[in-house]
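Handout, page 2. Input:
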Amino acid sequence: MRKNRRLRWAAIPVAATLAIVLAGCTQTQLNGFLPGFEGSDQPVTNHTERVAGLWTTSWIVLLIVGIITWGLLIWAVVIYRRRKGQTGLPVQLRYNMPIEIFYTVVPLILVLGFFAFTARDQSAIEARDASPDVKIEVLAKQWSWDFNYVDEDVYSAGVQAQDDPDGAQGAIIESELPVLVLPVGASVEIALESRDVVHSFWVIDFLYKKDVIPGKTNYMTVTPERIGTYAGKCAELCGEYHSLMLFNVEVVSQADYDAYIESLRDAGNEGQLGTDYDRNQNLPGTNAPTIEEGH
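Output:
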């Protein structure tokens, strides 16, 4: 009885401390210090909270497992340490079925749990919208990005990041980066294609990236939910100037999006950028010469 009372009294300050710590956490801390939550409770996309929730919950579970494991290790070291005057080896224990079942079943449950929740969230994130509001084709190239606005039949061609001669070492000219403009609250389907080698399309605050593979079209569907400018980059080493393969995503109102599309038309950027400048002209499905043509 006394032992139970002591446990209750010990649990009270622990619970109070935990409640105070959690209550004082910022939104960034509650979401595992991931990008995309700075200065706002509004998620950047419809997938942001799902990714952050999976990440944070996984860390909490693993931290609990770690604390228990470290506690047992320290307990065993202290309790079963060699005392003064003791010689020889301690009594050896083996074939303890309850313990063996425990350290087999518990890790199995953890692995299956992580797999199930990851598969659930991945399925939701990877699902394609049958009727997206906006369709974008992204063409990755060494070392920049081209953007086709499919439904509006306009395009924007990019160049790699340029060094700023007036800035600090390593500074770039932000205004010359390729810009992908998206309307807030719209379901956007992005088709990813490569003109040369493997790249990876990564918008940091979206907490999401996807490989861009020559000869294959990958898709990602996302709904931007917060107006702002978000940095993007290539996340796959793709050659000498990989670090300069940067771009920005601007999430704007529908009116500003329409105005941007009109500005592309006024600039003469009508039509779609195709495969004319692709370096991989011998991939399956291209017009590479056949054996018969060679004869």
